[in-house]
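Morning run. Coffee first, then this:
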Amino acid sequence: SDGSIRLHQMTSEYPLMQWNDSTNGQPIIALQWALTRPAVFFVLDASSNIYIWDLLENDLLPVAKQTIPTESVVTMALLGEPEKTNGLLGIALAKESGQIDIHYLKKKWALP
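And here it is:
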């Protein structure tokens, strides 16, 4: 609820990493690991901002942020086939109106 993200190992109750206030205090609505690139995850906050984290590039801050300005996004889901190495990774955004947008991401965040 405060925008903090914690990365845990299954064998410990203590986080390996913790990023406080990663969304400038906005509650996190969804967080999902990339299906095709294990070090990348995506975060959606309550202000319809999407943050892309690539832990191999920067483990302190997101590598990109995109605001969806037109309408409030209520959830997201990633699309891709982990067994294929074609670099296709998409994100489905569900908006308050019921509209669903699908966007394909740059290959640098999708390639294994």
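The beta strands are 5-8, 15-19, 28-33, 40-45, 49-54, 64-67, 73-80, 89-95, 100-104. Good start to the day.
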